[in-house]
Amino acid sequence: MDVAHCYLQGNADAVEFCPHEGYQNVLAASTYTLQEGEQPTRAGSISLFDVNAEKGNLELFHRVDTAGIFDIKWSTIGSNAGPLLAQADADGYLRIYSFEGSSNEEKTRGGFLNEVSGERISSSMCLFLDWNPSATSISVGLSDGSVSIITIAESGIEKLQEWKAHDFELWTTCFDIHQPQLVYTGSDDCKFSCWDIRDSPSDRVFQNSKVHKMGVCCIAKSPNDPNTILTGSYDEYLRVWDLRSISRPVNEASVCLGGGVWRIKHHPFVSGMILAACMHNGFAIVKIGDKKPEVVEAYSQHGSLAYGADWQRAKILPGGETKSTTVATCSFYDRLLRLWMPKSDICCI
């Protein structure tokens, strides 16, 4: 069910709901626009919206112009600090913003982003970022195939280590939420790798180069099962991996989603429910379980490359029930941001 939509001022590539209590109405959307000419530039922006799906509200309350952005992520809930938003951009910068706003629902909702640190960590482009569970470190994938591990401190951000992990663009990196000393990486070289960052340079735990037929775009560790991790690829497959033999993970199941699998997001409270952005084939909700993964719903209301997707964290109601899940999605060239609710009762699938 469509709830609301709007158009951004640049090509839309990422959407992220704030997971922090009291700020779960806040949606961030980022853009990347190549401005061609004798000296091409890559411009971007972050827009913040107040979302109330029950009232059909998608209200812009803050916007900041930036370099062209490839990825944004809110800090994980496990941190003691308030909400932080990290940005990975085409100029090689990692920027950290604090969100300054009211969490009192009786007040007017709103706020703004305040940059608390920003460093050019590479001469290459920053393509992807992931927070560790305690929100003290960030892994960043770079366009030269390297990965950087950045620590977050009161004095700013500091590069702990960086190494050449892949031959081509490193599209995705992911901390293991159960074993945060492990970092997974995926690249345009079709390789899926794992690294132990307790050593410097990091030790490679495994590298799989045979399963993905095209570049690896996204990786997501299951929040509920420490032995399960998912990968998405340009080859259009969402794959489920068994990590019980960490040095030799097993691809135990897969499903073709009809388009390059650019982003995958686990549902915040329904185990095994996955939201996928499928580039040329819109968006899909996929059920991962004991049986073969299956698509339970497809969403095709975008007319361009499906890039950004996220679930809103549902509020728990008295009696343990939850409100209907709201989804935000965005597409690139048509600059479209949409809010919608799944037609399926995903809590009962």
From TrEMBL:
Catalytic activity: diphthine methyl ester-[translation elongation factor 2] + H2O = diphthine-[translation elongation factor 2] + methanol + H(+)
InterPro entries in the cross-refs: Diphthine_MTase, WD40/YVTN_repeat-like_dom_sf, WD40_repeat_CS, WD40_repeat_dom_sf, WD40_rpt
Enzyme nomenclature, EC number: 3.1.1.97
Superkingdom field: Eukaryota
A UniProt-annotated Pfam family: WD40
GO molecular function: diphthine methylesterase activity
Keywords: Hydrolase, Repeat, WD repeat
Pathway the protein takes part in: Protein modification; peptidyl-diphthamide biosynthesis
Transmembrane spans: none
Catalytic EC class: hydrolase
Any one of the GO CC terms: cytoplasm
Annotated signal peptide: none
SUPFAM superfamilies: WD40 repeat-like
Start and stop residues of the WD repeats: 209-245
GO aspect biological process, one term: protein histidyl modification to diphthamide
Protein family membership: Belongs to the DPH7 family.
Designated name of the protein: methylated diphthine methylhydrolase
The species this protein was found in: Hibiscus syriacus
